[in-house]
Write a structure and sequence with these properties.
The chain is α+β, with helices and mostly antiparallel strands. It contains five helices and eleven strands, in the order ααβββαββαβββββαβ. Strands 3, 4, 5, 6, 7, 8, 9 and 10 form an eight-stranded antiparallel sheet that branches. It is globular. The protein starts with a helix and ends with a strand. About 18% of the residues have low confidence.
């Protein structure tokens, strides 16, 4: 029996080492993205008073004089908000890169999100449009507009959202550029403003191809 004890201990140690080195389940990137977005939405100020509705509301104009340029692309945005890296906020060791990333910008009256992913040869950007929308809080109008601008395939739809009571309206779009696909989403306090913002943001969009 004394001769078998070291052997048993050796086998036990080997089994423990194998268990410690066994591969762990890879986290779902979509779940990680949604967790980061939910944390960002939770940070939106809720104390802003919602404007009293008028019989004939007119869309609030947003001037997209700001220009975000990083990760080898540029996109227009309102000057009173600034994009930050949601990926880096969630995990400082894994920030956004050329290949994929997630940005957000917000204040009490506006929330914007931009996502991109490398997808060589992809002609239809709708898969990223679907990824960006959250089925539990976003409701598209199901009137998808598909068009071509500057050799980029583009899709867009208006959406309604319950993410925050102050921003119940919005829109989302996606497009191709080079070897990447991009997606954009905005929540606004009034109906009819997101489409103009998307078109202006896209008009000022460039990417390294």
């Amino acid at each position: 029996m004394k001769k078998q004890t070291p052997l048993l201990l050796t086998v036990s140690l080997i089994l423990l080492l194998l268990a410690a080195c066994s591969p762990k389940a890879t986290p779902d990137p979509n779940v990680q993205i949604q967790q980061a977005v939910n944390a960002t939405l939770a940070a939106i100020p809720t104390s802003t008073r919602v404007p009293v509705p008028t019989p004939f509301p007119s869309p609030t104009p947003f001037s997209l004089v700001g220009l975000f340029c990083e990760y080898q692309f540029c996109i227009g945005h309102p000057s009173d908000v600034a994009f930050f890296d949601v990926s880096a906020q969630q995990n400082p060791a894994a920030p956004s890169t050329y290949s994929q990333g997630l940005l957000a910008a917000f204040n009490g009256n506006l929330f914007i999100q931009v996502m991109w992913q490398i997808a060589p040869g992809t002609a239809d950007p709708k898969f990223l449009f679907d990824t960006l929308l959250n089925d539990t809080i976003d409701t598209p109008s199901n009137n998808l507009d598909v068009f071509l601008t500057r050799n980029m395939n583009v899709v867009y739809d208006d959406i309604a959202s319950i993410a925050t009571p102050a921003l119940p309206y919005g829109g989302a779009g996606a497009w191709t550029c080079g070897d990447r696909v991009f997606a954009w989403k905005a929540y606004t306090p009034q109906s009819g403003t997101a489409r103009g913002m998307f078109e202006e943001a896209l008009a000022r969009f460039t990417c390294g191809q």
